[in-house]
């Protein structure tokens, strides 16, 4: 979740990948931002079955990654037959330039306001059930990115 890159923003979203994708498309169409949509193979550490959804706009690349559970949890839940109970959340990984920072802040703010729940709420997911510190860090990142005071500052 923590990124050491200057032009990268990453955070979890407490909704499934397809909902996050639909919401992002709605926001980008509302803002009249032209984009292309593609997919990449899944990142095994997050989930082995769902491809990444990639949105490319001018100076922005937004990856929506499906997160179900870690490989060990997936293994045991498959053995126990409870894998169907592991609902997924999303992980946003966004690369941007200094010129697109303000546009990204507006997209994230619209995403936040149109999300059916606060996007940083991830406690319902079994992987994050007791990850209080992670949720606080996630909330701080969302608040900083969406707060109008920070629109011109670096996030």
UniProtKB/TrEMBL annotation:
Highest taxon listed in the record's lineage: Bacteria
Protein name: Uncharacterized protein
């Amino acid at each position: 979740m923590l990124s050491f890159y200057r032009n990268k923003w990453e955070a979890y979203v407490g909704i499934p990948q397809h909902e996050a994708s639909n919401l992002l498309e709605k926001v980008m169409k509302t803002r009249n931002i032209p984009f292309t949509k593609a997919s990449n193979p899944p990142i095994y550490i997050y989930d082995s079955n769902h491809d990444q959804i990639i949105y490319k706009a001018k100076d922005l690349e937004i990856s929506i990654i499906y997160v179900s559970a870690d490989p060990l949890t997936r293994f045991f839940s498959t053995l126990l037959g409870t894998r169907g109970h592991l609902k997924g959340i999303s992980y946003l990984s966004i690369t941007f330039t200094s010129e697109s920072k303000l546009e990204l802040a507006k997209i994230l703010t619209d995403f936040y306001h149109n999300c059916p729940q606060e996007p940083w709420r991830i406690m319902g997911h079994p992987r994050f059930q007791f990850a209080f510190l992670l949720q606080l860090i996630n909330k701080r990142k969302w608040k900083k990115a969406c707060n109008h005071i920070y629109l011109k500052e670096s996030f």
